[in-house]
Amino acid sequence: MSNQKDSLQGFAVQLYKINAIKFGEFKTKVGLTTPVYCDLRVLVSYPDVMKTLANLLVETIKGVKGVDILCGVPYTALPIATAVSLQTGLPMVMRRKEAKDYGTKKLIEGVFNAGDQCLIIEDVVTSGSSILETVKDLQNEGLKCSDAIVLLNREQGGAGILQKNGIKMHALLTLSQLMDYLFKANCIDVQVVEKVKQYLAENQVPSIPTPTVDRRKLSFLDRAQLAQNPVAKRLFEIMASKQTTLCLAADLTDATEILNLAEKVGPYICALKTHIDIVDDFSINLIDPLKEIANRHNFILFEDRKFADIGNTVQLQYSKGLYKISSWASLVTAHSVFGKGVLDAIQGAPGSEEKGVFLLAEASATGSLITDAYTKSTLKLTAEYPKLIAGVVCQNPLFLDNPALIQLTPGVKIAQTSDHLGQQYNSPESVVTEKGADIAVVGRGITEATDPVAAAKRYQTLLWDAYLSRINP
Ligand SMILES: O=c1ccn([C@@H]2O[C@H](COP(=O)(O)O)[C@@H](O)[C@H]2O)c(=O)[nH]1
């Protein structure tokens, strides 16, 4: 341990001596002033320092499991990645910043297989945006990225932004450690240390305006880490562990039939969606056995109430009356047409501690009156309630940059394109690969099948295979 510390201290001093770290007043890319400047481009002129760096990075890489291939973030990290590749024997790919307009037009050069686990190598991280741009291009080519090794973490918020996008950063040095080493080696005095400390405290990168990773490329387990709504998090975990993205629409009018179906298809679904007001013989006695089946088979109860009224009425509809929805349904749907009051009402209502809302942004019915502007405003609303909103009900990949939210898509059936009352259907494969669905809602495709269990298994498999091919094209 102290050996590693000594080597890092020695390396920090080397960086200082070759002017890769400078102190003074410097202008950043965005016109701000910084008291510390890192210029690691000079490393190519000092092969001995580059060698020390490669050795240190190789040690760090040992903590990352399953790496198949390396990729340096252009341009400064390209020679660093090359040095690490030579040292470890791991192959490398190179990302072009812009595609060639001749020949192959490739953005990623080198030999790789879709599904290879690619470790990112970067020199300095401030916001993490350069890493995310590289990750995006690599993922578009089917490579998987979950870790980045960096020389210096400037501690300005980049680690958190990367984590939100499913990338774990492993830094050789933080700026504070670097300052500490240089101070102990008498390279800098206490005033410089204090100036940098103050700069760091006052210059954290806001976490919003960075390029984000396409949610369709991330695994559900990775997205579980990013989910802010507790039910969405649990749903992602259930989807990953049960390998199912199937939500059953149990649109049956008989309470016993609902319980029987829930028991039989429970192992193959992640959620069971009800329209509780269509049950002819509803009594609150239906709820306890339904909850027990949901617990035993590990799926979530979801009432498709589509709340749309003033907040006060919604709160009463959600928690009172015959159905007492808030006492048993972890998830509900809501329209955005009445604005924020609906969400405030659900948020503030008594009932289950863990609750989540799916907002309706599009409908599967022909002739739906929902306009593009309405859809856009609905999506905006999701950003204002990150802890409450579990996802969006829609028919298209409307949002890609928020992996914390779940796309729920109804209107799914094998070999049928519509019903006689305006419902429109897509196939399980196309809703996942083309339409962007994370969870598919299937009702009559299962409830009206001659063998509902066999049908549920078939939908589960088709949907799960489509998800696997989406994250591993
Ligand atoms: O746009 C929407 C929103 C909700 N639904 C609901 O999904 C199921 C679909 O049932 P199928 O039998 O598979 O057609 C049903 O409960 C709807 O209320 C939707 O279809 N479209």
TrEMBL record:
It holds the Pfam family Pribosyltran. The active site is at 304 (for ompdecase activity), 306 (for ompdecase activity), 309 (for ompdecase activity). CDD domains: OMP_decarboxylase_like, PRTases_typeI. Its EC number is 2.4.2.10, 4.1.1.23. GO terms for biological process: 'de novo' pyrimidine nucleobase biosynthetic process; 'de novo' UMP biosynthetic process. GO terms for molecular function: orotate phosphoribosyltransferase activity; orotidine-5'-phosphate decarboxylase activity. Pathway: Pyrimidine metabolism; UMP biosynthesis via de novo pathway; UMP from orotate: step 1/2; Pyrimidine metabolism; UMP biosynthesis via de novo pathway; UMP from orotate: step 2/2. Transmembrane segments: none annotated. Keywords: Decarboxylase, Glycosyltransferase, Lyase, Multifunctional enzyme, Pyrimidine biosynthesis, Transferase. Substrate binds at residues 251, 273, 364, 423, 443-444. PROSITE patterns: OMPDECASE. Residues 245-459 form the Orotidine 5'-phosphate decarboxylase domain. The keyword Glycosyltransferase applies. HAMAP family: PyrE. In the C-terminal section; belongs to the OMP decarboxylase family. In the N-terminal section; belongs to the purine/pyrimidine phosphoribosyltransferase family. This is Uridine 5'-monophosphate synthase. It comes from Dendroctonus ponderosae (Mountain pine beetle). The lineage of its organism: Eukaryota, Metazoa, Ecdysozoa, Arthropoda, Hexapoda.
